[in-house]
Amino acid sequence: MWKCVLAGVACVATAWAQPSSLELANLREDVRGLNQRVGELSLKIEQLERENAELRRRAGATDSSYATVTRLNEAVSDLNEKLRHAIASAKTETLQQVATQMEKLAAQTNAALESVAKLPASQSPASRGSEKGSFAENYPKEGVSYTVQKGDTLAIIAKKTGAKQQDIVNANKLTDPSRITVGQQLFIPGAK
Fold first, then answer.
1. What is the mean pLDDT of the chain?
2. 6, 38 Cβ separation under 8 angstroms
3. In CATH, what is the architecture of 121-189?
4. How confident is the model at residue 2, as a pLDDT?
5. For residue 66, how many C-alpha atoms fall within 13 Å in the half-sphere facing its CB?
6. What are the structural domain ranges in the chain?
7. What pLDDT, in 10s, does the model give residues 16-36?
8. Rounded CA gap, 59 and 26, in Å?
9. Which string of DSSP letters, residue by residue, matches the chain?
10. What pLDDT is stored for residue 85 in this prediction?
């Protein structure tokens, strides 16, 4: 059941925004951690079930006096309460972690949208292609998204990703490839 919930959470997080590779890796790590936590809780449940079975076995081995049955019922009740509490606690913790991740993704998406909205008309994607003529469309259509880092040049990005510089220029319709900015999102066609 928890794995289905976690898979659903992963789908919701994917649908919520198109995160970068780093964000996806972080999200996968978070999901892996949640899976590990669910596994730990499953082990605790199994341990409680074994303890419960051991108590039942002991109760069966002793005489069935009224006091022994009462103690056994109390022990089973205590174990059930501990189990319910552990499940509720794990569920709350998991939901809090998912909510935190979703809030982070929403903030990052909003920031990206705001930065795109603040671009002057001369830097908008529609005007970039018309300033210097047409761009070739013969670049690979599959690739990855890349966020420009401090010190990056088109040559460095091409070397890091294994893509051709001209393919990056054509895919992103860069009229001046020397004017990429930190934080700028680029599509890297054919990246490895």
1. 82
2. yes
3. Roll (3.10)
4. 52
5. 0
6. 2-117, 121-189
7. 555 588 888 899 999 999 999
8. 49
9. -HHHHHHHHHHHHHHH----HHHHHHHHHHHHHHHHHHHHHHHHHHHHHHHHHHHHHHHHHS---HHHHHHHHHHHHHHHHHHHHHHHHHHHHHHHHHHHHHHHHHHHHHHHHHHHHTS-GGGSHHHHHHHS------S-S-EEEEEPPTT--HHHHHHHHT--HHHHHHHHT-S-TT---TT-EEEEET--
10. 92
pLDDT of residue 128: 45
What is the per-residue pLDDT across 41-68, written as a single tens digit (0 to 9) for each?
999 999 999 999 999 888 777 655 556 7
Burial group, residue 125, by CB count within 10 angstroms (0-12, 13-18, 19+): exposed
Low-confidence spans in the chain with pLDDT less than 50? 124-131
Residue 179 burial (C-beta neighbours within 10 Å; 0-12, 13-18, 19+):
exposed
Question: Could you tell me the two tokens for 85?
Answer: 């509490």
Q: Which two tokens stand for residue 183?
A: 């934080």
How far is it, in rounded angstroms, from Cα 143 to Cα 137? Answer: 14
Q: Which two tokens stand for residue 69?
A: 């049955």
Q: Say what the pTM is.
A: 0.33
